[in-house]
Design a protein that fits this description.
This protein is mainly alpha-helical. Helix content is 52%, strand content 6%.
Length: 474
């Protein structure tokens, strides 16, 4: 059977030239790069042998090499000319194979191959550190890793994203300005951690700490872009400018924070608001406006660590005196989540001025206490149903809470406080069941209220005064 000539096999045919059902099939099987075409070689896959389909796809993807982002700061044209491509084997679907530890993380795949071939990564990677400095550039590290795994490099199928992931905890630094070259890779630390994982089948503590630190900074950078539309570079640049302005005003680094805080706190309240900070910085940089107002708003908001709308001396000093603002922000809890949580806890439920937090704590306390004595809540409530009619009164419920030392009261003789549930909170729990205000509580419904996974998802009791006029309800 005659083989297709290369010039014929590589001839492109637009997918739009085929019927709709064929077009859809071709798009799913061949045109995964959304190029809008297929080649004759791909259409004739199988005609030239069992591997022709794989070879055709591999040929197309290899022809597209050099389009990934360049590394090391060199221009893309120079990298393509020198052959320094950044693609990794896992980036090509045509190179996929059923390899060792397939489907697991890149760390586990590397460790499995090292155990299987009894490799020593410390010796293999050392061959590329010609200056014996303990660090190499990113491109050299990529080549060293390829050399270390040898014939298993394709089987490892590492992608560019996975490569970036494994080197981040070992980078000397990140570029401070656009266009700057990348930092170097601490290959010795990498080799030690990887060998430890392969030999002991567990990560070292130092590795997990470094990885957590990197992931925290990545979350901060993503949140900056999403919440404020500010990049990490913009934030660092503005932060350096602000520190220089404050240093100029203070005249001495030892009194930097004190002088800055006094100049901003004009009303001597011990706290400064966002408006005071912005006004001070605007005046300080007058005539040399180098700080973007949008970034300034971001920094002022980030200074307010507890989300109360004001900045105290401690918060300002932590921000100004830190060496790496991204590292500082990675250690600060998510202020928006904290403020949302506080707002949710202080939400008033019902009409007796009981907060959501008090109600949830009361529900949990009752449930925990009753389940230590009875198999379930329904059985516990049935025990206090003295009439046996399936209903409880509010007083019976409160008496049960008093008996179990749950209802808040002051001991007449000792003055000690007992219990944690107020009468208003107990009445609010009863209001969930006693909707018609007849004083009767169906204990099956009451049990559902006490065992609800989130009581706030149940519609809150409505104030009966809206229907029956003003008055007090017990």
């Amino acid at each position: 059977m005659a083989m297709l000539q290369p010039q014929v096999a590589n001839k492109r045919i637009p997918i739009n030239a085929f019927p709709p059902e064929v077009r859809q099939a071709l798009a799913q099987t061949w045109d995964k790069e959304n190029g809008g075409f297929v080649t004759i070689g791909e259409l004739c896959a199988g005609y030239n042998g069992a591997n022709s389909a794989r070879n055709a796809r591999q040929g197309r993807q290899i022809a597209a090499m050099g389009k990934a982002r360049p590394t090391g700061g060199a221009p893309a044209s120079a990298q393509k000319f020198s052959g320094a491509y950044t693609e990794m084997p896992g980036d090509f679907a045509a190179l996929d194979s059923i390899g060792m530890a397939e489907g697991q993380s890149i760390w586990d795949r590397m460790a499995a191959i090292i155990r299987s071939r009894r490799l020593d990564m410390r010796i293999l990677l050392d061959a590329h550190d010609r200056r014996n400095a303990g660090v190499v550039d990113v491109d050299t590290f990529r080549r060293a890793l390829c050399y270390a795994f040898g014939n298993n490099w394709i089987e490892l199928a590492i992608t560019s994203a996975e490569f970036d992931h494994i080197i981040k905890p070992y980078m000397t630094r990140n570029p401070n300005n656009p266009g700057e070259p990348e930092g170097f890779v601490f290959w010795q630390k990498f080799a030690t951690d990887l060998q430890t994982l392969a030999d002991r089948r567990t990560h070292s503590d130092n590795f997990m700490a470094r990885l957590s630190k990197v992931e925290a900074k990545e979350r901060v950078a993503a949140n900056l872009q999403k919440t404020y539309g500010v990049s990490e570079y913009d934030l660092k640049k503005a932060f350096r400018s602000i520190k220089e302005l404050l240093m100029l005003k203070a005249g001495s680094s030892s009194h930097l924070v004190t002088v800055a805080f006094r100049n901003m706190d004009r009303d001597h309240t011990g706290k400064i608001g966002a408006a005071e900070i912005k006004k001070y910085l605007a005046v300080a940089q007058r005539g040399n406006e180098s700080i973007d107002p949008r970034v300034m708003d971001c920094i002022v908001d980030l200074c307010d660590g507890d989300g109360d709308g004001e900045v105290d001396y401690v918060e300002l000093s932590k921000m100004i005196l830190c060496d790496d603002i991204m590292e500082l922000l990675a250690l600060v809890p998510d202020k928006s989540l904290k403020s949302k949580s506080q707002a949710a806890d202080s939400q008033v439920i019902g009409f007796r001025k009981v907060t959501a937090k008090e109600l949830q704590q009361a529900q949990q306390a009752i449930k925990t206490k009753l389940l230590t004595k009875y198999p379930n809540i329904t059985t516990a409530l049935r025990k206090i149903d003295t009439k046996g009619d399936g209903f409880l009164s509010r007083e019976e419920v409160k008496e049960m809470l008093r008996f179990n030392e749950l209802l808040k009261r002051i001991d007449y003789y000792t003055g000690a406080m007992h219990g944690s549930i107020t009468e208003a909170c107990a009445d609010t729990l009863c209001d969930y069941v006693d909707k018609d205000r007849d004083g009767k509580l169906n204990y099956n419904e009451f049990a559902r209220v006490l065992t609800a996974e989130n009581i706030l998802m149940i519609p809150a009791p409505k104030n009966p005064a809206a229907r029956f006029g003003s008055g007090k309800f017990s």
